[in-house]
Specification:
With about 475 residues, this protein is of the alpha/beta class. The protein has twelve helices and 15 strands. The strands form two sheets. Strands 1, 2, 3, 4, 5, 6, 7, 8, 9, 10 and 11 form an eleven-stranded mixed sheet that branches. The protein has a four-stranded antiparallel sheet with strand order 12-13-14-15, covered by helices on one side. The chain is globular and about 65 Å long.
């Protein structure tokens, strides 16, 4: 009996999942990108928020704070910029998110970041929100470089029922189950943020230890609808504003979920060789309980509150802890920077030099230097108001256009001297103003001529499917 028991124990110890020894060394690091949804700079405690985000703070303490990180003002354009390293204006995705009834998406000709890392030998997975196209099976995550997908296709989801949620459209029967694993609907109980963290941990634990992992964890929190776990909301009973209280609870659960992922990396003994990037897809929406600190504006604007977001990079093997950089970095830069940082440039890359808009900033990140960034563009449209902006060096031109009347309002700011955008500098810098106008007009002209006007309500012919996984996975 004792001999048999010893044999069983020996076999268990030899199994990778039970071994206490470190995993085999890999030629390239693991990559994990944790993308929050609508999280503002005023919502993290390392920047003074009343919401105590201990795990985000843990990352900030262990890694590099990207103090001037820029997104796009809304969900779909930001995700498209991250995945393509090319500005969404070039393929018609700058001015609107992908609506449930939209057939648009990232064009099939664009090469996505997971495809690049997949070709370089990485196992790839998306856990969470997609929101960059579902009108065709070839637009879906499993067809765009992800070996594994668990989550939802649309932008807004009920946190408890996993039914699509869309603004004021709230029929009793819901708008269809939008929760799946690799094209098959999953009906399960649980709060989405918690479920996504559980799945991300499972993907890490069950990975092929002989291959590096590229994992995008696209959490839907704290995006509306404002729904929190009762246990989390109790922690913030002292917050009088109801929206802020619920929002704070949602951020708290997000932070706990991040902590679960970090602990899984520690348990698997791969923290040191894992490059982890935490960031938000756009600024917070103040009318939905979020905060962008002292910055003006918020989600769906091109003011700093809409496009400057919390971002932290941690890679213990390569990046010194407790550092901060003031270098302006954008979502477009993530792809080329990761390709260099991981050393896969000889195995996979974008189509050709000059085919992307982002820059490789790995050397800058490592040595701590900064340099002025030129020609950074931002755009969104909400109802009849289109917001666009360009940052060139330390200067920023912000424009609001009424698409019905054609009237425009412009403001010129010197961000290095006035990061809060409090004083218009147009009257004293007319030449600079004209130069930035030219840059912005030229950039907007890159948008495909068949301009897609955002629609906020579904066409009469549209019917919400009961099962989004089944409906979007079928060909006509």
């Amino acid at each position: 009996m004792r001999a048999h028991l010893l044999i069983v124990i020996a076999l268990l110890l030899l199994h990778p999942g039970c071994s206490s020894s470190p995993p085999p060394s890999l030629p390239h690091p693991n990559i994990i990108i944790v993308l929050a949804d609508d999280l503002g700079l005023g919502d993290v405690s390392y920047r003074g928020s009343e919401i105590q985000t201990k795990n985000i703070d843990r990352l900030a303490n262990d890694g590099l704070i990207l103090e001037r990180f820029y997104s796009q003002p809304e969900c779909s354009p930001s995700r498209a910029a991250l995945l393509t390293s090319k500005h969404p204006v070039r393929y018609g995705m700058s001015f609107s998110v992908i609506r449930p009834w939209d057939s648009r998406g990232i064009p099939k000709e664009e090469r996505l970041l997971p495809e690049i890392f997949q070709e370089a030998g990485y196992a790839t997975a998306l856990v969470g929100k997609w929101h960059v196209g579902h009108g065709d099976p070839e637009q879906l995550p499993n067809a765009r470089g992800f070996d594994h997908f668990y989550g939802h296709l649309n932008g807004r989801l009920d946190y408890f029922t996993h039914q699509l949620s869309h603004g004021e459209l709230r029929p009793p029967e819901g708008l269809g189950l939008d929760w799946q694993r690799n094209g098959k609907a999953v009906e399960e109980e649980g709060y989405t943020t918690t479920l996504l963290a559980k799945e991300a941990s499972r993907v890490i634990q069950d990975r092929d230890v002989h291959r590096p992992l590229f994992l995008l964890v696209a959490l839907n929190a704290p995006h509306p609808p404002l729904q929190a776990l009762p246990s989390a909301e109790q922690k913030f009973a002292s917050i009088q504003d109801e929206k802020r209280r619920t929002y704070a609870a949602m951020v708290d659960t997000l932070d706990e979920s991040l902590g679960q992922i970090l602990n899984t990396l520690d348990d698997e003994k791969i923290t040191s060789n894992t490059l982890l990037l935490f960031l938000s897809d756009n600024g917070a929406a103040p009318d939905k309980g979020g905060s962008n600190g002292s910055l003006r504006g918020g989600k769906a604007t091109t003011l700093e509150g809409g496009i400057r977001v919390p971002a932290i990079l941690r890679w213990p093997a390569k990046i010194e802890k407790r550092r901060k950089t003031e270098q302006r970095i954008t979502l477009l830069d993530i792809g080329p920077t990761l390709i260099t940082a991981t050393g896969i440039g000889d195995k996979a890359s974008f189509k050709a030099p000059g085919d992307i808009d982002g820059q490789d900033l790995w050397a800058t990140i490592q040595d701590g230097a900064t340099f002025p960034r030129e020609k950074l563009f931002f755009a969104t449209q909400h109802r009849a108001k289109r917001h666009t902006a360009v940052i060139d060096g330390g200067w920023k031109l912000a424009r609001t256009t009424d698409v019905l009347s054609g009237t425009e309002e412009e403001f010129l700011y010197h961000l290095d001297q006035d990061p809060l955008e409090s004083e218009d500098q147009t009257s004293n810098n007319k030449d600079r103003h004209r130069a930035l106008q030219t840059l912005l007009n030229r950039w907007i002209s890159l948008h495909p001529p068949d301009y897609h006007r955002p629609t906020y309500l579904p066409p009469r012919s549209f019917r919400f499917p009961r099962d989004w996984a089944r409906a979007t996975g079928q060909r006509d």
